[in-house]
Amino acid sequence: METMTQQQAAWFGETFAKLVANVEQAVLGKRRAVALTVACMLAEGHLLLEDVPGTGKTSLARALANTVHGSNSRIQFTPDLLPSDVTGVNIFDQRSHSFEFHKGPIFATIVLADEINRASPKTQSALLEVMEEQKVTVDGVRYPVPTPFMVVATQNNIEQAGTYQLPEAQLDRFLMRTTLGYPDHETSVSILADASVRDRAAIVEPLITAGAVSEMAALAATVHVDQGVLAYVSRLAEETRRAPEVRLGVSIRGCLAAVRGSKVWAASQGRNYVIPDDVRDLLEPVFGHRVLLDPEAEFTGTRPLEVLARIAGEVQPPMERVG
After folding, report:
1. Domain co-membership, 13 together with 85
2. How many structural domains is the chain composed of?
3. What confidence tier does 161 reach under pLDDT thresholds 50, 70, 90?
4. Model-level pTM?
5. For 208-211, which contacts have Cβ atoms below 8 Å and span 24 or more sequence positions?
6. Is the preceding omega at residue 148 within 30 degrees of 0, hence cis?
7. Are residues 110 and 173 in the same domain?
8. Which residues contact 162 (CB under 8 A, 6 or more apart)?
9. pLDDT of 85-117, one tens digit each?
10. What's the burial of 303, exposed, middle or buried (CB within 10 Å: 0-12/13-18/19+)?
């Protein structure tokens, strides 16, 4: 596979900026969160948006779906939601005397799983196979989902009543996790000035086709990653497993996510090669939800991001190319 040329990298960076600007119409003042969301899509990964209510998580997910000229669906997760409500179900057709598969909302280019932690673990697990393999199995038959395919899940990390915590296996299937937070004062005033606009995501027009998303993802995969940078990613992950406060560190899937994300992040800045700063920029969204602390560390108030920051300061990045 040939490495992305500098001309292609420049085009990728320009297109990436246009996509971010388009999505940003719905979520003002949150450029980094929007950029991470677009990068996650182009890295062919899934995104978890975790924040307090009213910060625009759903608006961001819907704006991304509207930006892509393809199919999109929204699943409102509730305690009574069944796995078949997500994947689909076989229904008996009396005319043909056979069962016919009726596809569920998971069969879309971009799927918004709203308040995912409100569904039961059984329903949450219905997403595991399709997020990893992009196929759904119903009654022993496997059905492929569209390409590209992305799950954007939201959850409220404050209110815990009536919710089910996502299992570690499902958290690891999200390439990135990010938050939005409250807007600054100037942005808040701008939003309030347009209070008559009830649905900002609705004003976002399609800017790119689903096929073009796949082409950009394939192009980003050709970004060069030096062996020294790969060793740097591996060392960071190894240190999370050795940290005394950590119960579960970053897996090899997390390392692959860091490399894939870093390739897109480099291309978004018009470069056809990854530098250590790309890895560090994505350390929190890619590794943050993959580091689980032991109960004693949690009791003392230690946060995973603090552990990651310490590790990032201790592990020296490569100073020269290895090859």
Report:
1. yes
2. 2
3. low
4. 0.90
5. 208/15, 208/19, 208/67, 208/68, 208/69, 209/68, 209/69, 209/70, 210/68, 210/69, 210/70, 210/71, 210/109, 210/146, 210/147, 210/148
6. yes
7. yes
8. 79, 118
9. 999 988 888 888 888 889 999 999 989 888 888
10. middle
